[in-house]
Amino acid sequence: MSAEFTRINLLDLDETGLRAFFTSLGEKPYRAQQLLKWIYHHQVDEFEAMTDLGKELRAKLPLVAEIRPPEVLHRQVSDDGTVKWLLGLPGGNAVEMVFIPEPGRGTLCVSSQVGCALNCGFCSTGAQGFSRNLSTAEIIGQVWLAAKALGHERNGQRAITNVVMMGMGEPLLNYDAVLPALRLMRDDLGFGLAAKRVTVSTAGMVPGIAQLREDVDVALAVSLHAPDDKLRTELVPLNRKYPIKTLMQACRDYVAGRNKRSVTFEYTLMQDINDGPKHARMLVKLLRTVPSKLNLIPFNPYPGTRYRCSSPERIQAFQEIVMAGGLIATVRKTRGEDIDAACGQLVGKVRDRTRRSERLRAQAAEFQE
Ligand code: SAH
Question: The pTM is what?
């Protein structure tokens, strides 16, 4: 077999993995630290440029290893400065990644899977079906690519100050690949982001939430979208398996003993579905029991959806009720809408293996006839 087939992608390894890798080569484990700095502090992907590694090692590394992020297929810039990349992956798949610049901060929204298996009815990623999990290299490679493209610093401040796992996919259903990527985002030798600046967003994978708390310190966001089980199961089918009560307990456990931490609950507002005063009041009761913030997301439409965005009046009324009830609630500003980069609009190119997209298309065609 040629070396081409056995080369290991070093973006797949966190510090522990890299130490083991260098040991297996008969090298000192501290090489891992040197390499991490080159990759993540300087976005260098050529071993030849890594001058402190020593000539011999620099010659040996390309034979056994590579540093290979996903391939940029397309890049779009929104009127509001939001940038969306389409990233190509082996096998004809592609995922999307979004950078959202704001005064004083820059948030990168990364994907964890090609498509999503969860099938939440209001999410365009869900409608694409599911192809496969991303590897660690494909996840951390997104941050790497963005850091390289945006420059590590802008006006003396880092370009990427926050990373949110809110792109395509359910991160806690791809735990083994996501965890090393999160460690690399947090690690001082990696991107060095503080715990509150790395957010994992989940549709409510309860076992994953518990595991995450054990393994790495990051912020947690939960896609709630409904205050009761009946409606939530309609919107987020995973709720059947992990109903609200179980989910709330997992959230309380996640922040327990962690000073000043809270869970962010995402709540997408859909006209006449989950945006009434009664829903707002129920939400207040529910979220009072968890240290939390509420992030209200105006629904972003996409072709074929039967949901509509709540009117500005309903959004405002909803926010007023929850705030009067004592919750901290913000309305997420929609960004990058003109380039379909807003929440729930990321589609990439999914070689659907669930045949869900095919079924949905057939249904839609029938509906139109
Ligand atoms: N699977 C994870 C990560 C995706 S995050 C999760 O569910 O949390 C993407 C966020 O956008 C989620 O809160 C999701 O529910 C929300 N969302 C999905 N479709 C949307 C749409 N069309 N409009 C607004 N928000 C949407």
Answer: 0.93
